[in-house]
Amino acid sequence: MKKEEKTKQTCEKIVHAATIEFGSRSYDAVSLNAICGKYQIAKGLIYHNFKNKDELYGRRERRGKNSKGRNPYFFGETGSVFC
Question: Rounded CA gap, 10 and 24, in Å?
Fold first, then answer.
């Protein structure tokens, strides 16, 4: 597997986890530590791809929606989410 492909998959996993967490709880109730623990993501990987929780939240908002403006994870669609 190429490095770019692995990076893309890691980023997808992070954004997917954030989409689920931010979608089920308030922004303030979600912590990066909780995302790391629940989804087995190293904290360093999150900070390698995102500056902070705000950037992850924003990326999840922008990239988590398909062309119809809906989040594919909540509508059973198979959309790709890339960083």
Answer: 21
Helix axes 53-63, 3-24, angle to 10 degrees: 90
The pTM of the full predicted model, rounded to 2 decimals, is 0.72
Residues 6+ away with beta carbon under 8 Å from 65:
71, 72
Quote the DSSP letter at residue 78.
-
Cβ neighbours of 58 (radius 10 Å): 12
d(CA 28, CA 72): 23
**Sign of torsion over alpha carbons 50, 65, 18, 81:** negative
Q: Which residues of the chain have pLDDT under 70?
A: 63-83
